[in-house]
Automatic annotation (TrEMBL):
Gene3D superfamilies: Crotonobetainyl-coa:carnitine coa-transferase, domain 1, formyl-coa transferase, domain 3. The keyword Transferase applies. This is CoA transferase. InterPro entries: CoA-transferase_III_domain, CoA-Trfase_fam_III, CoA-Trfase_III_dom3_sf, CoA-Trfase_III_dom_1_sf. It comes from the Bacteria. It comes from Pseudoduganella albidiflava.
Length: 399
């Protein structure tokens, strides 16, 4: 069949993706990259909200915009799109029939939003008890905020990330800052796909499906990682430190003669190597700096001393010297330099896929490398309703 997908790790798995924007679609794209047949259900006429989130738009061969937004393209590779109006009884019945054949449903409607259509977990699981139903919301299925809408930016603020990101208060440019990518959405998508795989393993043993309740706020709190632990153990709320690290010194950006670079010293041996490269070998045995706890204690004077040296040479010069000495370092790249980087190119992190309107579409590769069931790219992000007839024949007729 022309639309047959690769024999990936999840080959044969049927996923009905009722989600839109980023967190849910990101989970669906990961499952699709791993070989699942992911069917994206979209509103006729408009489709996923992110289809309209441009510019930039994917250009056709003549450079004219196709109407396919770059944002949408980032999260919907390897899926098939069907256009179904779930506000109509006919559309609801059709989605219920698809759900009877599905292994997994992904959805990010507001709490209780799908019950009015008979598309909630209880309704669909009654007809398909093996179904794994993953709900993604801002605040979860219960709790005092359950009915609130949740967006990544809002959650980055409420969940503490913005209290840790940005220049310290009192410095020029100080104040809360969001991360430059909708990271809470992306991380929620990763947690969702992980949870789905765990639920599949459980179903393999028991034959039973289950409901997965994922909240953006929960995920944001969870991924505070060492910073959350610092607070829980130390009892003091961490504050914004710019690019500095709360527990390691030196681990931040330093100005050079022509820009900035990152120095990321993770142990005392690396620090002594750094001192040699900087021409300050005596710092390696100085009792103020010889161990990391001492360097954290004397952070301000050490960082000032390093900065006084790093501004004397260009970034590329320092990076070459430090790499040669085994000191972790690197430039701060803009995205043009990221995709020109020889390591990024060697790892194939930019791919091109055939696209019916544009000829080809550039996309970012999946970073997972598997020896037996590698990720493959078999379908560009679909146009709205592109596969409606094909999917209905596949899932409902060809049984």
């Amino acid at each position: 069949m022309a639309h047959a997908i690769n024999a990936g790790a999840l080959a044969g798995l049927k996923v009905l993706d009722l989600s839109r924007v980023l967190a849910g679609p990101w989970a669906g794209q990961l499952l699709a990259d791993l070989g699942a047949d992911v069917v994206k259900v979209e509103r006729p006429g408009n489709g996923d909200d992110t289809r309209a989130w441009g510019p930039p738009w994917l250009p056709d061969g003549d450079g004219n915009p196709t109407g396919e937004a770059a944002y949408y393209l980032s999260a919907n590779r390897n899926k098939r799109s069907v256009a179904i109006d779930i506000a109509t009884p006919e559309g609801q019945a059709l989605v219920r029939r698809l759900a009877e054949r599905a292994d997994v449903v992904l959805e990010n409607f507001k709490v209780g939003g799908l019950a009015q259509y008979g598309l909630d977990y209880a309704s669909l699981a009654a007809a398909n008890p093996r179904l794994i139903y993953c709900s993604i919301t801002g605040f979860g299925q219960d709790g005092p905020y359950a009915q609130r809408a949740g967006y990544d930016f809002l959650i980055q603020g409420m969940g503490g990330l913005m209290s840790l990101t940005g220049r310290p208060d009192g410095e020029p440019g100080g104040g809360p800052m969001k991360v430059g990518v909708a990271l809470t959405d992306v991380m929620t998508g990763l947690y969702a796909s992980n949870a789905v795989l765990a639920a599949l393993a459980h179903r393999e043993r028991t034959g039973e499906g289950q409901h997965i309740d994922l909240a953006l706020l929960d995920v944001q709190v969870a991924v505070l990682a060492n910073q959350a632990s610092n607070y829980l153990v130390g009892g003091q709320a961490p504050r914004r430190m710019g690019n500095a690290h709360p527990n390691i010194v030196p681990y931040q950006e330093f100005a050079t003669a022509d820009g900035y670079m990152i120095v990321a010293v993770g142990n005392d041996g690396q620090f002594r190597k750094l001192c040699e490269v900087l021409g300050r070998p005596e710092w390696g045995s100085d009792e103020r700096y010889a161990t990391n706890p001492q360097r954290v204690r004397h952070r301000a004077e050490l960082v000032a001393g390093i900065h006084a040296v790093t501004v004397t040479r260009a970034t590329a010069d320092w990076v070459a010297r430090m790499e040669g000495a085994g000191v972790p370092c690197g430039p701060i790249n803009t995205l043009d330099k990221v995709f020109d980087d020889p390591q990024v190119q060697a790892r194939g992190m930019r791919i091109e896929m055939p696209h019916p309107l544009a000829g080809t579409v550039p996309l970012v590769a999946n970073p997972i490398r598997m020896s037996a069931t590698p990720v493959t790219y078999h379908r560009a992000p679909p146009m709205l309703g592109e596969h409606t007839d094909e999917v209905l024949a596949d899932w409902l007729e060809n049984r």
